[in-house]
């Protein structure tokens, strides 16, 4: 073996290469560097996309909501009897139960940690929604200045604006009162903080209720528009040129419509559950999962948009 401080002669190395080929170390080093650079590049791209996603209010809400709901799911899973039984089986299989008897006799803290993370994300969302009345004002203002052509859509949209204002205003008052920013005497005089939250959810449910009619009306109008286009007397060449563009626009329109329908359908029973004092029987350990399902499509679309920037 050569002395580490004195590398072997080049001629010896050349003879060695002739007999056994390239050294695994010399051959593997460039490949390792390429893999490292590829990993760093992929990490850089992911961080840039995440930064772009968090640079918008909608992106922040989607990320925080995902953290909130996923942490809630993990909290209930880690605290369930089935998970604890599974952990015990793993300890038995690993034959370390005797070494960790004193530890396993205590409740596992993992569930409480996930619950704390879920609570933190939820409270952050409450804080950010304190400014939620501003975009609602803009939505109502733009609707009044540029009303939809269809009078039914226009009326439904204004009802949704009013419902959302009720939801956000009541939630803001209840949240600020719970933090002692606003006097609790006024809130307690009209039912207490919990009652204000319930009525806030009822305002949100009003938005969901009217959204079903909006989607129904959009479906009717789209069918009429497509029927009118098929009957329109245009030349075959123009028809072929327009067909590709309109086909893609129609695909995106239908996809957006279906996305709203799925989101609304998933939220409706959960919001109704929160609207009632006794609920409708949805288990608490499923609320995080249902909420995550409602927002999963939106998160996927927001993340996909960052790749186009």
Account of the protein in words:
With 309 residues, the protein is mostly helical. Among the domains are: 73 residues, no CATH class; 137 residues, no CATH class. It has twelve helices and no strands. Helix 7 packs antiparallel against helix 8, helix 10 runs antiparallel to helix 11 and helix 11 runs antiparallel to helix 12. InterPro entries: PEX11. Pfam families: PEX11. It is found in: Peroxisome membrane. This is Peroxin 11C.
Query: Could you name the ranges where pLDDT drops below 50 across 5 or more consecutive residues?
Result: 1-22, 100-105
How confident is the prediction overall: mean pLDDT? 84
Query: Sheet bearing the most strands, described?
Result: none
Order of helices and strands: HHHHHHHHHHHH
How many beta-strand runs?
0
User: Pairing-aware structural class of the strands and helices?
Assistant: mainly alpha
Task: Note the beta-strand portion.
Answer: under 5%
Write the layout of secondary structure elements.
Elements: H1 10-20, H2 24-54, H3 57-78, H4 81-94, H5 101-104, H6 110-129, H7 133-145, H8 151-178, H9 184-189, H10 193-231, H11 236-275, H12 284-306
Helix pairs in contact: 3-6, 3-12, 7-8, 8-10, 10-11, 11-12
């Amino acid at each position: 073996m050569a002395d580490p401080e004195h590398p072997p002669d080049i001629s010896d190395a050349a003879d060695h290469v002739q007999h056994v080929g390239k050294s695994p170390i010399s051959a593997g080093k460039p490949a390792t560097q390429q893999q490292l650079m590829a990993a760093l590049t992929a990490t850089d791209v992911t961080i840039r996309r995440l930064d772009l996603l968090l640079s918008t209010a909608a992106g922040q809400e989607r990320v925080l909501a995902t953290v909130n709901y996923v942490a809630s799911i993990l909290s209930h899973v880690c605290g369930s009897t089935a998970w604890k039984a599974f952990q015990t089986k793993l300890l038995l299989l690993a034959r370390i139960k005797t070494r960790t008897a004193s530890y396993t006799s205590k409740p596992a803290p993992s569930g409480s940690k996930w619950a704390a993370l879920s609570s933190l994300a939820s409270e952050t969302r409450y804080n950010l929604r304190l400014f939620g009345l501003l975009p609602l004002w803009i939505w109502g203002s733009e609707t009044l200045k540029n009303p939809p052509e269809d009078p039914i859509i226009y009326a439904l949209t204004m009802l949704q604006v009013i419902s959302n204002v009720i939801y956000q205003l009541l939630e803001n008052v209840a949240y600020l009162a719970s933090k002692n920013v606003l006097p609790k005497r006024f809130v307690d005089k009209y039912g207490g903080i919990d009652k204000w939250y319930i009525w806030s959810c009822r305002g949100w449910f009003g938005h969901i209720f009217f959204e079903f009619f909006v989607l129904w009306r959009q479906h009717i109008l789209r069918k009429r528009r497509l029927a009118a286009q098929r009957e329109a007397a245009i030349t075959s060449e123009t028809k072929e040129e327009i067909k590709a563009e309109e086909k893609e626009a129609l695909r995106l329109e239908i996809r957006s419509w279906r996305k709203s329908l799925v989101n609304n359908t998933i939220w409706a029973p959960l919001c109704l559950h929160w609207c009632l004092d006794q609920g409708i029987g949805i288990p608490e350990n499923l609320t995080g999962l249902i909420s995550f399902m409602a927002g999963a499509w939106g998160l996927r679309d927001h993340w996909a948009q960052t790749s186009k920037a």
